[in-house]
Specification:
The protein is of the alpha/beta class. Helices cover 39% and strands 21% of the residues. It is built from six helices and eight strands; from the N terminus they run H-E-H-E-E-E-E-H-E-H-E-H-E-H. The strands form two sheets. Strands 2-1-6-7-8 form a five-stranded parallel β-sheet, with helices on both faces. The protein has a three-stranded antiparallel β-sheet with strand order 3-4-5, with helices on both faces. Helix 1 packs across helix 2 and helix 2 packs parallel to helix 6.
């Protein structure tokens, strides 16, 4: 049981220490992953980015993911009943929303160069792994050196699924029984946009000072 996301991030940072000398970038999944990623990036001295990807939903059921998109790339699992026109319109809509989020969280800061880097994707926990899998597929197009997933807690099935797709998945707790990510935190309140910006600004100041 973690006290909060910061404590979880500190425990995760200890497990990720072996990557300390890599040219690494911490990629935080908003919003809950940001405080965890902040603690990791602060401890290990890595730059942080908010990773912005959204799933592309099926036209008949938006909850059913047929792919994922970032600001620069996307991947789609072909479906006969899904037209190219629909996909292009979805990509346009998703990217408009992602641009707004990027501007809000990262301001005018240029995105980190990801090619050849060790990318450490961080969230506050993983239940199924499906959403983060979409993120991994999109990130692969940046030709990173390694892709690592770091989380305080993950289900056994998610670890099995994701470990086939990345260089390593690092989890502090992989429980026998899982009743939702929040069950492993004493404090699991929703993270606001303001908190996301607070942590990102704080880390920027620390990096400038250091």
């Amino acid at each position: 049981m973690f006290k909060d996301r910061i404590e979880a991030g500190l425990l995760l940072a200890a497990k990720l220490k072996k990557y300390q000398n890599d040219p690494a970038v911490v990629l935080a999944v908003p919003r809950g992953g940001v405080p965890v990623a902040y603690a990791v990036a602060r401890e290990l001295g890595f730059p942080i980015e908010v990773i912005l990807t959204k799933k592309v939903g099926h036209p008949m059921n938006k909850e059913y993911a047929i792919g994922a998109a970032s600001l620069t790339d996307y991947f789609i699992v072909p479906h006969e009943e899904v037209s190219e026109e629909y996909i292009q319109q979805e990509l346009k809509d998703i990217r408009t929303r992602l641009k707004e989020m990027y501007k809000r969280f990262m301001g005018d800061q240029d995105p980190e160069e990801l090619e050849g880097k060790t990318l450490i994707i961080i969230d506050d926990g993983i239940a199924t792994g499906n959403t983060i899998l979409g993120t991994v597929y999109v990130l692969r197009k940046n030709k990173p050196g390694k892709i690592i997933i770091g989380v305080p807690v993950a289900t056994q099935s998610a670890v099995r699924k994701l470990s086939k797709e990345v260089d390593e998945i690092v989890a502090v707790i992989i429980p026998e029984e899982f009743h939702g990510v929040g069950a492993f935190y004493e404090d699991f309140v929703q993270v606001s946009d303001e908190e996301v910006m607070y942590y990102l600004d704080k880390l920027r100041e620390l990096r400038k000072a250091g």
